[in-house]
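User: Could you go from structure to sequence for me? I need the amino acid at each position, not a summary. C-alpha cells:
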C-alpha cells in the first residue's frame, strides 16, 4: 500500500473505461477520470450547497481516494493527493446535494457498523489464529509422540530380532551339539550292541556247545559204563560159570578118580579076593552100582555145562545189544554235534542279520538325524526370513510414518504460512478500513465542509451489501476443500487429539483420557454391610445361623445313620466300582448349556438323594469352543456356558451336603488351540497349559503335531494330545488334582478313551485317586445284513481289554448291553443269554466294571444318534436296575418322560434286595416269549409274556412276594 500526490492536470473530461482484471474472483475493475468544467455553482435556496471553483482551487485540500486490487494478494491500496492552491489548469466545480450528504452520512454510519463487525471478525480471526497455533502445537506433539513410538517399536523389533537371532543361534548350536552327541551315542550304542551281540552269541554258543559236549560225554560215559557193566557181568558170569564148571568138573573128576581108584582098589582087591578067594557076587553088584552113579554124575555135569554155555550165549547177545546201544548213542552224539554245527551256522546267520538290521537302523538314524538337521536348518532359515521380513516391514512402517510425519509437518507449515498470510492480509484490510472510515479532516473554518472525491463511485463498491468485494472482505478468500484433502484429513483424524471447542480451552487443557470412577468408588449392594445395632437384622441373622446349624446337624445325623447301616464292603471305595452300590444320574442333556444349569442342578440335589441316587455326572466344566463343553481349550478356566466357577463350587457343595458324589466329565483325548502357527494351523495352546505342536500326536492328519504316534484312534475335530510326553502327563495329573482338591469333584467320567491307551488312564487315576471312574469306550457292534448279530463277543472283548489296560482301576460304559437291548426287548429275549448261560454284554464277563445305561446326551436328547426305543424304556430300566453292574439314569427320562415314579420304584426294589455290582445272576429262561432271572438271593424278575412264578418253582425255596407287576412288560418278586 502506498500514497502519492496527483496534479490537477489529471482531472479532465470524465471518461469511462471498463476493463476486466485477472483477480481471483474475476470482478470488473472500473476506471474513472474527472474532467474539469468551467462552471461556477453558488449556494441557492433550494437547499443545495455548491462550492465555486475558479481558475484556482478555493477550498481545503481535496481527498481523492483510489481503490485498486492487486491480482496476487488482493490488497487494497489507498492514494491520498493533497492539491496545491496555485496549481494550474482548468477549474472544476463539484456540487453536493443535501440528500446525497445525508445518504453519505448514513452510508458512513453503516460503514462504521460494518467496521465494528470487521473488528469483531478480526477478533474471531485472532482467536482462530491462536487456536490454530495451539492445534499446530498439539499436532506437532502428537507427531513427535508417534515418531517416538515408532522409534521405540523399531528398537523393540530390533531387540526382539537380536534376541530371536541369538536364541536361534543358540538353538542351532544346541541342535548341532545334540546332533554330535546323538551321533556319538549312536556309535557307542552300535559298538555296545555289537559287543553285546558278540557276548550273547559267545555265551549262547558256549552254553550250547558245553551242553552238547556234556550230553555227548554223558552219552559216551553212560555207553561205556553200560558196556563195561555188561562186559563185567559177562566176564564175571562166564568166569564164575567156567570156574564153577571147572571146579565141579575137577571135583567130579577127582571124585571119579577117587571112585575109580577106590573101584580099582576094590577091583584089585576083588580080583585078588576073586583070585584069591573068588569074592562074592554082592561086591560085584555094588561096584556096578557105583559105576552107574558115576555115569549119572558125569551126565549131570554135562547138562550143567550146557546150561552154562547157554548163559554165556545169552550174555554174548546182551553184549552185542549193549554194543548196538553204544553205536546208537554214538549216532545220537553225531546228530547232536551236527545239530550243534547247524545251530552255530544259524546263530552266525542271525548275528549277521542282526548286524545288518543294526546297520540299517543306524543308517536310518543317520538319515533321520540328517533330515531333522535339514528341517531344523530350513525352519531356522524360514525363521530368519520371517524375522527379516518383519524387520523390513517395521522399517517400511517407520519409513512410511516418517514420510507421513514429514507430509503432515509440511502441510501444517503450509497451513501456518497461509494462516499467517491471511491474518496479515486481514490485519492490513482492517487497518485500511479503520483509517478510511474513521479518519476525519481537520477543519480550518467551522462552516466549511469537507469535499470528498469518490473516485468514480469506488466507495460504493466497498460499502454495497450486494458487492462481491464486500463478501470477499467479510468471508475471506475461501476455496472448497478438494476430495483428496478431505480423505487425507479423515485418514489422519483418528491420530489427532480430541478437538477443543474454545481457544482458551485449547491453550490451557491437555489431552485427557476418559476418567471413569474406580469399581471401589461405585456403590454396590453386594458390598453393602448390614446396619449394626438393628434388632430386626440381628434377629434375622440369628435365625439364619440357627437354621444352618440345624440343617448341618440333620445331615451329620443322617450320614452317621447311613454309615452305621452300611457294611464294610459297602463303605469301601474303589475307583473302578465306587462302593459297589452306586446308582449314577447323568445330570444334563445336550441343551442344558442354554440355561443357568449349575443353579438348576443344585436345586435338584435333595430330590435326587431322596430317590436313592448316589452319584451325579456333571457336564464338562472347562471353557470350550463348543458350548456343550466337549471341545475344551483353557482347562483351568471353568467359566463355561453352564455357569461360573463359583456356581459350580456351590453346586458341588450342595451335592456333598446330600451325600452325593460329583463326577466331572473330563476330556483328555483332545484340546482346541488358541493360536495359529506360522503355517496357519491351529496348534498353539494358551492359558496356563501353554503347549505347542510337540503336545500333539504326529499322525494327526489335520494339525501337524510333532509328538509321538497316537496310542489309539484319531479324533479329527481337534488336536489329539500326545499322552506319551512326560510334561503332558504331569500337567494332566496336576489339573485333575486341582479339580479334586480345589473344585470338589469326587470322580471322573472320561470322554473318548479310545483315543489313548488305558495305561495312561491308570496313571491318571492313581495320581488323582477318584472315588469312582467311568470310561466312554464307544465302539460299533457287529451287524450282518442290517440285523444285529447274536455273537457280540468281539465287541465286549474290546471294552474288557481297555478295562484290563487300566488295571481295573476304571469301569466302562456297557455299550454292548445297550445295543443288545435295542433288539432283545422286541420279543427276541434269547439275545440276553450267551452260550455259557451268562448275560451277553460286558455284564456277563466283568459285571463289577460294567456301567449299564439306556441313553445319554449323544445317543438321545436333541442329537438322537442312537436313541433307545421309547416304548421299551420301562423294560430297559427294569433290566439294568435289577441286574449287577452300575446303572445310569438319564436326565430326560427322569424329569421329562413321565416315568420318574417307575424309576423310583425300581431303585427301591434294587435297594431292598441289596443288589450291587457283583451280585450273582442265574438266568432260567430266555426265548422269544420272555426272560426270567434270579439276581442275588432275594430278587427274581421276568420280562415278556412268559407264565412264570417263583413260588411254583421247586428249586426256589422261601416265600416270594410280588413287588412290582407291570403285566407283560415286567414283574419283580422279592423273597421274604
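Assistant: Here is the amino acid at each position, in order:
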Amino acid at each position: 500500500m502506498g500514497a502519492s500526490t496527483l496534479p490537477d492536470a489529471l482531472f479532465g473530461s470524465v471518461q469511462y473505461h471498463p476493463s476486466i482484471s485477472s483477480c481471483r474472483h474475476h470482478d470488473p475493475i472500473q476506471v474513472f477520470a474527472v474532467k474539469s468544467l468551467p462552471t461556477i455553482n453558488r449556494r441557492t435556496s433550494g437547499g443545495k450547497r455548491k462550492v465555486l471553483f475558479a481558475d484556482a482551487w478555493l477550498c481545503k485540500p481535496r481527498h481523492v481516494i483510489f481503490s485498486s486490487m492487486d491480482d496476487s494478494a488482493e490488497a487494497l491500496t489507498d492514494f491520498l493527493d493533497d492539491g496545491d492552491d496555485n496549481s494550474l489548469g482548468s477549474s472544476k466545480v463539484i456540487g453536493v446535494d443535501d440528500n446525497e450528504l445525508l445518504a453519505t452520512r448514513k452510508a458512513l454510519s453503516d460503514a462504521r457498523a460494518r467496521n465494528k463487525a470487521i473488528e469483531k471478525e478480526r477478533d474471531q480471526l485472532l482467536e482462530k489464529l491462536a487456536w490454530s497455533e495451539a492445534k499446530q502445537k498439539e499436532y506437532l506433539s502428537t507427531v513427535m509422540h508417534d515418531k517416538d513410538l515408532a522409534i521405540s517399536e523399531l528398537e523393540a523389533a530390533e531387540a526382539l530380532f537380536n534376541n530371536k537371532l541369538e536364541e536361534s543361534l543358540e538353538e542351532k548350536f544346541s541342535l548341532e551339539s545334540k546332533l554330535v552327541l546323538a551321533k556319538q551315542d549312536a556309535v557307542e550304542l552300535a559298538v555296545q550292541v555289537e559287543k553285546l551281540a558278540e557276548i550273547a552269541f559267545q555265551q549262547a554258543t558256549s552254553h550250547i556247545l558245553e551242553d552238547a559236549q556234556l550230553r555227548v560225554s554223558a552219552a559216551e560215559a553212560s555207553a561205556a559204563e553200560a558196556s563195561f557193566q555188561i562186559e563185567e557181568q559177562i566176564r564175571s558170569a562166564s568166569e564164575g560159570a567156567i570156574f564153577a564148571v571147572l571146579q565141579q568138573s575137577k571135583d567130579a573128576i577127582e571124585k571119579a578118580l577117587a571112585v575109580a581108584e577106590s573101584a580099582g582098589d576094590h577091583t584089585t582087591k576083588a580080583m585078588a579076593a576073586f583070585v584069591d578067594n573068588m569074592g562074592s557076587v554082592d561086591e560085584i553088584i555094588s561096584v556096578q552100582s557105583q559105576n552107574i552113579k558115576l555115569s549119572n554124575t558125569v551126565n549131570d555135569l554135562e547138562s550143567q555145562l550146557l546150561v552154562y554155555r547157554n548163559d554165556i550165549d545169552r550174555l554174548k547177545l546182551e553184549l552185542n545189544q549193549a554194543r548196538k546201544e553204544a553205536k546208537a548213542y554214538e549216532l545220537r552224539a553225531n546228530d547232536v554235534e551236527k545239530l550243534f554245527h547247524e545251530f552255530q551256522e544259524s546263530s552266525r546267520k542271525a548275528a549277521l542279520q542282526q548286524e545288518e538290521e543294526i546297520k540299517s537302523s543306524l543308517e536310518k538314524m543317520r538319515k533321520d538325524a540328517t533330515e531333522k538337521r535339514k528341517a531344523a536348518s530350513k525352519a531356522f532359515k524360514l525363521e530368519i526370513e520371517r524375522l527379516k521380513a518383519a524387520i523390513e516391514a517395521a522399517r517400511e512402517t517407520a519409513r512410511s510414518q516418517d514420510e507421513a510425519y514429514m507430509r503432515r509437518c509440511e502441510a501444517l507449515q503450509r497451513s501456518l504460512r497461509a494462516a499467517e498470510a491471511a491474518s496479515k492480509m486481514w490485519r492490513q484490510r482492517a487497518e485500511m478500513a479503520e483509517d478510511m472510515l474513521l479518519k476525519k479532516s481537520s477543519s480550518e473554518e467551522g462552516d466549511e465542509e469537507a469535499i470528498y472525491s469518490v473516485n468514480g463511485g469506488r466507495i460504493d463498491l466497498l460499502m454495497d451489501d450486494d458487492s462481491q468485494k464486500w463478501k470477499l472482505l467479510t468471508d475471506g478468500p475461501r476455496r472448497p476443500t478438494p476430495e483428496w484433502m478431505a480423505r487425507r484429513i479423515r485418514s489422519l483424524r483418528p491420530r489427532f487429539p480430541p478437538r477443543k471447542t474454545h481457544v482458551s480451552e485449547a491453550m490451557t487443557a491437555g489431552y485427557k483420557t476418559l476418567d471413569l470412577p474406580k469399581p471401589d468408588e461405585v456403590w454396590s449392594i453386594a458390598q453393602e454391610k448390614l446396619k449394626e445395632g438393628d434388632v430386626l437384622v440381628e434377629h434375622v441373622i440369628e435365625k439364619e445361623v440357627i437354621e444352618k446349624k440345624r440343617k448341618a446337624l440333620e445331615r451329620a445325623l443322617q450320614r452317621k445313620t447311613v454309615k452305621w447301616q452300611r457294611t464294610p464292603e459297602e463303605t469301601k471305595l474303589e475307583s473302578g466300582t465306587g462302593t459297589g452300590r452306586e446308582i449314577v444320574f447323568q445330570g444334563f442333556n445336550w441343551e442344558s448349556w442354554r440355561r443357568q444349569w449349575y443353579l438348576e442342578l443344585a436345586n435338584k440335589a435333595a430330590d435326587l438323594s431322596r430317590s436313592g441316587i448316589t452319584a451325579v455326572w456333571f457336564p464338562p466344566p472347562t471353557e470350550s469352543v463348543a458350548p456343550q463343553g466337549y471341545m475344551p481349550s483353557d482347562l483351568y478356566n471353568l467359566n463355561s456356558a453352564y455357569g461360573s466357577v463359583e456356581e459350580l463350587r456351590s453346586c458341588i457343595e450342595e451335592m456333598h451336603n446330600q451325600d452325593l458324589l460329583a463326577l466331572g466329565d473330563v476330556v483328555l483325548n483332545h484340546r482346541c488351540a488358541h493360536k495359529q502357527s506360522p503355517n496357519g494351523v491351529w496348534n498353539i495352546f494358551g492359558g496356563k497349559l501353554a503347549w505347542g505342536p510337540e503336545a500333539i500326536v504326529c499322525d494327526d492328519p489335520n494339525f501337524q503335531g510333532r509328538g509321538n504316534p497316537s496310542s489309539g484312534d484319531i479324533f479329527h475335530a481337534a488336536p489329539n494330545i500326545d499322552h506319551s510326553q512326560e510334561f503332558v502327563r504331569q500337567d494332566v495329573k496336576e489339573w485333575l488334582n486341582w479339580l479334586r482338591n480345589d473344585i470338589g469333584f469326587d470322580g471322573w467320567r472320561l470322554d473318548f478313551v479310545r483315543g489313548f491307551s488305558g495305561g495312561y488312564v491308570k496313571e491318571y487315576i492313581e495320581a488323582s485317586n477318584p472315588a469312582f471312574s467311568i470310561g466312554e469306550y464307544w465302539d460299533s457292534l457287529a451287524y450282518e445284513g442290517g440285523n444285529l448279530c447274536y455273537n457280540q463277543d468281539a465287541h465286549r472283548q474290546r471294552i474288557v481289554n481297555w478295562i484290563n489296560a487300566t488295571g481295573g482301576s476304571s469301569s466302562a460304559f456297557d455299550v454292548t448291553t445297550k445295543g443288545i437291548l435295542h433288539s432283545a426287548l422286541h420279543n427276541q429275549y434269547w439275545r440276553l443269554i450267551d452260550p455259557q448261560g451268562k448275560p451277553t454284554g460286558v455284564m456277563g464277563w466283568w459285571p463289577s466294571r460294567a456301567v449299564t445305561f439306556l441313553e445319554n446326551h449323544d445317543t438321545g436328547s436333541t442329537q438322537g444318534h442312537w436313541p433307545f426305543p421309547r416304548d421299551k424304556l420301562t423294560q430297559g430300566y427294569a433290566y439294568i436296575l435289577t441286574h449287577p453292574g452300575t446303572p445310569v439314569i438319564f436326565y430326560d427320562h427322569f424329569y421329562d418322560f413321565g416315568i420318574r415314579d417307575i424309576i423310583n420304584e425300581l431303585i427301591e426294589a434294587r435297594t431292598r434286595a441289596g443288589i450291587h455290582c457283583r451280585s450273582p445272576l442265574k438266568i432260567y429262561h430266555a426265548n422269544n416269549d420272555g426272560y426270567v432271572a434270579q439276581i442275588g438271593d432275594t430278587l427274581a424278575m421276568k420280562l415278556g409274556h412268559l407264565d412264570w412264578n417263583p413260588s411254583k418253582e421247586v428249586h426256589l425255596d422261601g416265600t416270594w412276594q410280588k413287588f412290582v407287576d407291570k403285566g407283560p412288560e415286567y414283574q419283580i418278586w422279592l423273597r421274604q
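One structural detail worth keeping in mind: Residues 23 and 71 are 5 Å apart (CA to CA).
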